[in-house]
Amino acid sequence: MTRLLLLFILTSCAAEQSVKPGINDSFLAQRSVATWQERFEVESREIWTDRERLVDAVDVFRGADVADIGAGTGFIARMFADRVGDLGQVYAVDLMPYFVSHIRDGAIANGYANLVAVQCTERSVELPANSVDIVFTCDTYHHFEYPSDSLASIWNALRPGGRLVVVDFIRIPGVSRPFVLGHVRAGEEVVTREIQEAGFEKIGEDRFLQENYILHFRKRF
User: In which domain, by residue range, is 166 found?
Assistant: First the structure.
């Protein structure tokens, strides 16, 4: 009994703690997809206006299996689905059930047989091992409450040599908007270090966006 109790205590202590409690509260409070579409799919957001160039940068190939983590309203996941074609598969993964339902219903209504909506958890992307060639996150990494756990699940989901593409806000005190400084917990250097420590090597970057960086990583063995 004493040994079991000690094991439980050690396991509990080893569990990763939230790096930013409450980071997803706004999504829990506002469950209207239409409201989020007004924020995400708008010309004032560079991710929306430069979406074609952004998807080009991910270098999705026909027949690829791709995961969009934090897919939100699903507009990028649908673009991936168009590019991978019938031989590929796109997993649109999100923590919020209403986004998952919206993406699933839209895929059915618009004939996207290669687009699957997936409900994730705060600690795992909930994808099978060795199931995808590319994992993409856009303005989502800073929403990972448990980045080590989430990255471990991404590493597990990627096939050997698979790629991780991370798009997130540039966070520089005195340069970035006050919203970014208050909302985003870490800058690019910290994000890069966390991802490298999780078993990835950095292989490139893109700098054509004004408010976001794009980092490319490959799964290490």
Answer: 46-219
